[in-house]
Amino acid sequence: MLFSSVTFLYYFLPAVLLVYFLVPRWMKNTVLLLFSLVFYGWGEPVYILLMMLSITSAYFFGFFIERYRTSAPKKAKWMMILSVAVSLALLFFFKYYNFFAENLSRLPLIEIPRIEALKLPIGISFYTFQIISYTVDLYRRDCELQKNYVTFGSYVMLFPQLIAGPIVRYRDVDRQLTERRENAADFAAGIQRFTVGLAKKVLLGDLLAAGFEYFKNLALLESTALGAWMTILLYTLHLYYDFSGYSDMAIGLGRMFGFHFPENFNYPYISRSVTEFWRRWHMTLTDWFRTYVYIPLGGNRKAAALSGIKARWSLFMAYTNMGLISAVAAIVYLSRMDVATPKAATGYELDAIAACYVGGASVSGGAGTISGALVGCLVIGILNNAMSLVGISPDWQQAVKGLVILAAVAFDMIPKMRKK
Q1: Residue 367's closest CA among 241, 230, 275?
Q2: Chain-centre distance of CA 6, in angstroms?
Q3: Are 337 and 242 contacting, i.e. CB atoms less than 8 angstroms apart?
Q4: 317-337 pLDDT per residue, tens
Q5: Measured distance CA(158)–CA(3) in Å, rounded
Q6: How many whole angstroms from its chain centre is CA 26?
Q7: Which among 340, 330, 309 has a CA at the least distance from the CA of 402?
Q8: What are residue 242's phi and psi, to 5 degrees?
Q9: Would you give the distance in Å from CA 398 to the centre of its chain?
Q10: Helices (H), strands (E): how many in the chain?
Q11: What SS3 class is residue 168?
């Protein structure tokens, strides 16, 4: 169920608002949980069981972490590790099993069968990250144990940000889950923010998607330089307005129910470097990886001063993991929006990102400048033509462009780390 669909706007949203504001306060989280189950199950009801498994697992592991974190810290640490491992195992199985099965089967003497019926559950990355946030914050004593299953389930499954974010850390909404107070000012601000997001998605994002589809299909008949530029430009703008529009709608919906979600975008296309771009694009994802991957691996200033190798390793791992998650999420997101087929979406996604990164890493001023964009597009265009001429398969072309992205990130980041 999409926020811009008639079903959501004219049936689901009025129903949940009516019931939510009619019931007493102690039932409000229950109402949100039940309607979130309906919202999630509308598209893929079978995967409700998977999400409930993840929630229940983290919920009970939380009691063991709370029990042992004072009396037996090592046991608490192992409980935390097990809880995170269960969540990540489910995530990686559904996201990457067929990917690794297909590619490893190309090696001699290895044959791993694909599971054709295996589909990626909607929103699995977002609710997995939120569950891990709760588990790690509880172990670090950054939050208190949530003993109420309904309240914890509401945090994980809250329908406004369940599908496309923003990613909300548990410690940021801990008190809001039980102590929030709805008021007319917040409700009005939520309606305004939701309307802005809906306009960005429907009036701009969908229109740009139609233009992108036109030039993409035109390129199949006759490839021109102008058509290529229009395809890249329209796709890039569509991706921003569609994704940021969904984030705006999620923030607005949360505000209607008394929640204050973090911002997710801050004019990313005015960035002058790769570093600045990731501080402005999908900010809650970047913040999540910084808090739960980069810093734990030693990626803070103190660690960087003590060990340059460790700091670079933590940075590499954080960006690699974020890239893997973002790439697959983008493919699935675009295919669900009917913008393009997954394979086509992958190609344009990697071309756009690689061009941005190469331009940002090679030109003073970054990818946000015209010169940076020209250099990036020129390099990727030459690379695509060269790989096609020598007969490299499309799958390996994507792999090469992935390595180009990693190299551009390293080229941009390492000199700045040396200066620090």
Answers
A1: 275
A2: 25
A3: yes
A4: 555 555 555 544 444 344 333
A5: 14
A6: 32
A7: 330
A8: -70, -50
A9: 20
A10: 19, 0
A11: coil
Residue 40 is which amino acid?
Answer: Y
What's the Cα-to-Cα distance from 217 to each of 213, 230, 382, rounded to whole Å? 6, 12, 22
Q: What is the rounded CA–CA span in Å between residue 185 and residue 359? A: 44
* Cβ 89 vs Cβ 293: under 8 Å: no
Q: Which run of H or of E encompasses 336?
A: helix 308-336
pLDDT tens, residue by residue, 364-386 = 444 444 445 555 555 666 676 67
Tokens linked to 156? 């994980």
The mean pLDDT of 84-96, rounded to a whole number, is 89
Reduced to 3 states (helix: H, G, I; strand: E, B; else coil), residue 84 is helix
Residue 53 CB partners (closer than 8 Å, separation 6+): 90
Supply 80's token pair.
């935390």
The confidence band for 341, taking pLDDT boundaries of 50, 70 and 90, is very low
* Residue 186 in this model has a pLDDT that exceeds 60: yes
**Matching residue, tokens 């490839």:** 223
CB 412 within 8 A of CB 403: no
Taking the C-alpha atoms of residue 241 and residue 4, their distance in angstroms, rounded to an integer, is 13
DSSP 28-71: HHHHHHHHHHHHHHTT-GGGHHHHHHHHHHHHHHHHHHHHHHHH
| pTM of the predicted structure, to 2 decimals | 0.72
Amino acid at 369: T
164 is written with which tokens? 């496309």
Nearest to 271 by CA among 417, 381, 406, 412: 412
369 close to 363: Cβ distance less than 8 angstroms = yes
- Amino acid type, 80: M
